[in-house]
Amino acid sequence: MKILVTGAAGFIGMHLSKKLLDRGDEVVGIDNLNDYYEVQLKHDRLQQLDGYDRFTFIKMDMAERDAMQALFEEHGFDAVMNLAAQAGVRYSLINPHAYVDSNLVGFVNILEGCRHTGVKHLVYASSSSVYGANTNMPFSVHHNVDHPVSLYAATKKSGELMAHTYSHLYGLPTTGLRFFTVYGPWGRPDMSPSLFAGAILRGEKINVFNEGKMQRDFTYIDDIIEGVVRVIDKMAEPEPGFDTGASDPSCSYAPYRVYNIGNNEPVELMTFIETIENAIGKKAEKVMMGMQDGDVVATYADIEELSNAVGFRPATPLSEGIPKFIEWYREYHRL
After folding, report:
1. Is the distance from CB of 262 to CB of 299 less than 8 angstroms?
2. How far apart are CA 228 and CA 23, in angstroms?
3. What digits encode the pLDDT tens for the residues 17-76?
4. CA–CA distance, 304 with 311 (Å, rounded to integer)
5. Could you tell me if 295 and 209 are in contact, meaning their C-beta atoms sit under 8 angstroms apart?
6. Which active-site residues does the annotation give?
7. How far is 98 from 9, CA to CA, in rounded Å?
């Protein structure tokens, strides 16, 4: 297949592109290489794809309508994996317009490109943050998600709604993936694994929010990629006998699906920190902090729908994934 991967210089985008290329697909990757975090890391990720002759990288911003239209018309993609987005819950409190430009305007351009060029399947990154104020655990794709607590979450929920509209109006098969706290080699520097590992290795203090009384469903990158590839290959279909009165947000009478993709095993923040400390061989100096605006106390993925659909369940334990991440982090940063 010929597949467009947006956000190809990102953490998940690079790993996914490599997986697709290794199995024989042709991949066109786009990324605007913005400076939300250090651009050199993005260039270094792209270098991991340099040896593939079936990979084409184009520096491009999804919000550029004419450029996106030309991209779709030129390449005629079979499938699209939209990973590009302005990420980060806390940053959305500082620069909300960046989220509108990328996660809303950019996503409409993706939808329009798919609609007009006959793309067979659009898969896109949503987020566990859409569950917002919901405290019913584990988070299920059948739950209502109408109470986001950050603009980032609101834009991700909006993406799911826009995707459904295109599935309804134009019969475009769309599948949304709600990622749960992805970590591993080449991970983002603004995420807790990198923040904690870097501080501990440099002998600096770490900030522990909500005094450590938090849980996250940490999901190792290899599990995420396996799940994504399987979902790309399984085109979204209408749900037989869909009950419009029941309003199940996970499926539709249209070719539309939403899945959670997480480890299905929430971990206490203090246990997570201890696992990093053990992998490094050094204790962290902790500064206990309050809860941050836009954050949630816990995430926990119900992955039954994903498992039933593609026969896969993420299963890499933290005790296995964290040492792999620390090994990469020390080598990459020479620490």
Report:
1. yes
2. 14
3. 999 999 999 999 999 999 989 999 999 999 999 989 999 999 999 999 999 999 999 999
4. 10
5. yes
6. 152
7. 18
